[in-house]
Amino acid sequence: MENRTDKNSYTILFAIGMVLIVGSLLAFTASSLKPTITENQRMEKQQNILYAMGVNDNDESSATFISTDKVAGEFSKYITKQLVIENGNASENDQAYLIDVKKEQTKAKAGETRRLPLFVGEKDGETYYIAPIRGKGLWDAIWAYIALDKDMVVQGAYFDHKGETPGLGANIKQRFFMDDFIGEHLLGPSGDFKGITVAKGNADPKNLDKTDNEVDAIAGATITGDGVTAMIRSDLKLYVPYFKTLKQ
Amino acid sequence: MGLISKKDAKLITDPLADNNPITIQVLGICSALAITAELKASIVMAVSVLFVLGIGNVVISLMRNIIPSKIRIIVQLVVVAALVIIVDQVLKAYAYELSKTLSVFVGLIITNCIIMGRFEAFALANKPWQSFLDGIGNAAGYGLILIIVGFFRELLGSGTLLGFKVLGDPIEKTGLYALGYENNGFMLLSPMALIVVGIIIWIQRSRNKALIED
């Protein structure tokens, strides 16, 4: 005797029912949680920017953001100016941190003008210029917030990723990797843009030489490291003209 | 034995040793290779799978009499994917930090063959409570191997455990490194996880000859 659940009509009805139920369940969850999630992501951006300029709750070895209930206040306290650079002209825009770097990159590919956000922060009398950059790792997107001084020397960096391998590429968001960037020069001795290469076997594992435009790579994470190199080279290069105007 | 009968208890204890999903059934190898480079990732993955497999097994078991057999694999996949995505969304809204730690595991959990394997082999034919125990047991057996592999790979590959430098500092040359010890970079690469799993299988089978097939 044929089982009731083996019938084609039952199978099709079950499939339709399942799709409707699961689909609406997911849609309901996604839309009802969306405002909270967007708010979390907005605060995370502010935390990232502040982290890069050294406003964070780091202890000796771990990377910790300032808490979410403090972030709005600290952001308006430390970030003095938010700039959007378009065709070489910088204008102030206090929503610049909401600019989606990914969308801007797509626009640039389509031949449109890419808007470059840049955040200016003041802390202990020092001025920081924080630029968001984005690139590709091994599996998915990687991105970073790099804090620079007016000579394009890195003052702080925060890296993050969407889906790099835990224990390998995912370690770009560990302190030992991010802290290596502090003090590194983006420009060569003659003032031309060199970027920072994530280098294997660079004979400088303690990273004492800050002007070699290199940091030590993570073992087993070559492609993620190359992604970091490429992202710094292509995205931070776009900011060079602006930094030249600071010198004049 | 009150809540858990002797037969039910075996559902939990068997997968820990003599019917271990990784070393005996050879399921879930892909994630065991991918994420065991450090101990913390292994633990996170073990806990996530424990959660998903425990709940998923119950859901599938409750639905076992109404699932059409022709599309049962698709139904299982939909159940596990929906479960994982809903949990991920809820975490994103209410435990954002935690969700960022887990986000990379989401894809790996859905495709973990242990989950599909237990749905197919156990939950479709058993009652919810037994299915729950079976899910917990298999996830624990899986997690146990993951943690063992993660322990050795992090210790020998990076000289750390959960990020703590237990063997000294390789760059400053303190501790064991002062004696000329070097980290084995090979341990960080996936093939070495396979070799560690192989060694565990070897030890397990040499202790229990009944597991050796002809």
TrEMBL record, chain A:
Catalysis: reaction(s): a ubiquinone + n Na(+)(in) + NADH + H(+) = a ubiquinol + n Na(+)(out) + NAD(+)
Keyword RNA-binding carried by entry: no
Subcellular location: Cell membrane
Domain spans labelled FMN-binding: 137-239
E.C. numbers: 7.2.1.1
Protein topology in the membrane: Single-pass membrane protein
InterPro entries reported in the protein's UniProt record: FMN-bd, NqrC
Transmembrane spans: 12-33
One Gene Ontology cellular component: plasma membrane
Record-level Gene Ontology MF annotations: FMN binding; oxidoreductase activity, acting on NAD(P)H, quinone or similar compound as acceptor
Pfam family, one: FMN_bind
Main location: membrane
SMART domains: FMN_bind
A biological process term (GO) from this entry: sodium ion transport
Keywords for this protein: Cell inner membrane, Cell membrane, Flavoprotein, FMN, Ion transport, Membrane, NAD, Phosphoprotein, Sodium, Sodium transport, Translocase, Transmembrane, Transmembrane helix, Transport, Ubiquinone
Positions of post-translational FMN phosphoryl threonine modification: T222
Superkingdom of this protein's organism: Bacteria
Cofactors that this protein relies on: FMN
Family of the protein in this entry: Belongs to the NqrC family.
Record's function text: NQR complex catalyzes the reduction of ubiquinone-1 to ubiquinol by two successive reactions, coupled with the transport of Na(+) ions from the cytoplasm to the periplasm. NqrA to NqrE are probably involved in the second step, the conversion of ubisemiquinone to ubiquinol.
Subunit record text: Composed of six subunits; NqrA, NqrB, NqrC, NqrD, NqrE and NqrF.
PANTHER family registered for this protein in UniProt: NA(+)-TRANSLOCATING NADH-QUINONE REDUCTASE SUBUNIT C (PTHR37838)
The protein, known as: Na(+)-translocating NADH-quinone reductase subunit C
Organism: Winogradskyella eximia
Lineage: Bacteria, Pseudomonadati, Bacteroidota, Flavobacteriia, Flavobacteriales
TrEMBL record, chain B:
CC annotations in GO: endomembrane system; plasma membrane
GO MF term (any one): oxidoreductase activity, acting on NAD(P)H, quinone or similar compound as acceptor
Gene Ontology BP term (one): sodium ion transport
Major subcellular site: membrane
Membrane-spanning intervals of the chain: 43-62, 74-95, 101-119, 131-152, 185-203
EC number: 7.2.1.1
Record's bilayer topology term: Multi-pass membrane protein
Record field: catalytic activity: a ubiquinone + n Na(+)(in) + NADH + H(+) = a ubiquinol + n Na(+)(out) + NAD(+)
Compartment(s): Cell membrane; Endomembrane system
Keywords, sorted A to Z: Cell inner membrane, Cell membrane, Ion transport, Membrane, NAD, Sodium, Sodium transport, Translocase, Transmembrane, Transmembrane helix, Transport, Ubiquinone
The organism's place on the tree of life at top rank: Bacteria
Pfam families attached to this UniProt entry: Rnf-Nqr
Assembly: Composed of six subunits; NqrA, NqrB, NqrC, NqrD, NqrE and NqrF.
PANTHER family attached to this UniProt entry: ELECTRON TRANSPORT COMPLEX PROTEIN RNFE, NA(+)-TRANSLOCATING NADH-QUINONE REDUCTASE SUBUNIT D
Family according to the record: Belongs to the NqrDE/RnfAE family.
Primary role: NQR complex catalyzes the reduction of ubiquinone-1 to ubiquinol by two successive reactions, coupled with the transport of Na(+) ions from the cytoplasm to the periplasm. NqrA to NqrE are probably involved in the second step, the conversion of ubisemiquinone to ubiquinol.
Protein name per UniProt: Na(+)-translocating NADH-quinone reductase subunit D
Organism: Winogradskyella eximia
Highest classification ranks of the organism: Bacteria, Pseudomonadati, Bacteroidota, Flavobacteriia, Flavobacteriales
